[in-house]
Amino acid sequence: MKMSIHSRQISRRSILAGAAALGLTSTLAACGGSDDDSGESGGPVKLTYWAWAPNMEKVAAIWNKKNPDITVTVSKQASGGEILSKLITAKKAGNAPDLIQVEYQSLPTLVSNDVLADISKYAGDTKSEFSEGLWGMVTLGTDAVYAIPQDSGPLMFYYREDLFKKHGLSVPKTWTEFAETARAAKKAVPDAYLTTFSSNDPGLFAGLAQQAGGKWWTVDGSGKWTVGIDDAATKKVAEFWGGLVQEGVIDNQPMYTPPWNQALNKGTHLAWVSAVWAPGVLVSSAPETKGKWRMAPLPQWKSGENVTGSWGGSSTGVSTDSKHAEAAAKFARWINTDPEALAALVKEVAIYPAATKGQSGDVLTTPEFFSNQKDFYTTAAEIAATTAASAWGPNVQTTYTAFQDDFGKATKAKKETQFLSALGTMQTKTFDDMKKQGFEVAEA
Predict the structure, then answer these.
(1) What is the DSSP letter of 319?
(2) In 3D, which of 360, 382, 356 has the Cα closest to residue 132?
(3) pTM, whole model, 2 decimals?
(4) Which of the four, 157, 178, 266, 294, has the lowest number of CB atoms within 10 Å?
(5) 169-221: per-residue pLDDT in tens?
(6) CA 271, 313, 343, 272: dihedral to nearest 10 degrees?
């Protein structure tokens, strides 16, 4: 998760060394996309953009109208592991698309498989458009630039303002206070919980570990990876939530299910630790609670700290198969930094822009579910600026699958010790998988 990418620079050869284990060194060493942009001077350039976000073609249409010599066609894809597998297969066949919507945690996997080009020579001063933490996610700590950040998902604390007032509950500023609020909520409403610990979406747990300072993957200058998923910071997170589940003051039901929706609607879940995109989920999951929610910064591990983790978010990358890397990079910069493009991403695609200038302005109207919190996006921007720098390893899908399997069992068992053993199993499975793939790897 959180790689020490700002305390020291990791040379690009570290990425190449990891790729060497997969037999990709020669191609990656030359990556950066083809310089064959002959179409830009000899005729129209046609680019293909694989993306899963809805209505992305409407944003591309704005570009196409203004840039008839470089047209972009959006090809709708599935997200997650499905698009990863499809991209790697396409690369092996030599026909990967020009542009790719890439989740941040998937970047190392695609770099190691020679799918993403280094577009640093086309990036210009784009770095200045983003917070340091987000920019670090697309560089992997090197001098390379493997994508342009598109949207982000800073973590926040959502709570039912009406129920907190009714039961005299305090909005927690620290995780210690969070536990106290969970106990107070259970005492005030015996058939309710403050929230739930869910094992069906590893992204939230990863973001919480990121906030705590977890370093799930690190890599040194020689290309040797270290896996530390069960580091002290993440153990603290697992122990904290496991203890609350065992105590019975936090629910153990998965998110995005009919019972979870019902709990939100009926107020038997009084809060939700989520990301900036939560209002869109509440619209469909808890339609009866409109105007009753409020958002606050994520609780901190130490009083006075000010840091958050992230859950979700994506970027725009250029493939090593593109014959028009410069043109593709130009579009990637435009869609993620141009004011008109950012406005369209908010309006049409319903994302929270990664670019700092896209996190304020008239286009970000207060979510209808938060009509009682007019400063929603002002607060969100302040929180987003505190997002911890993070990076990922080349086998995130293995780690995420292990989380769902092993924390799923621990959550059902309601045992704090099993939460910790599940974390240990995640560590072992991740390390063994990297070793099997041929990476030079050690355990923290």
Answers:
(1) B
(2) 356
(3) 0.87
(4) 266
(5) 999 999 999 999 999 999 999 999 999 999 999 999 999 999 999 999 988 87
(6) 0
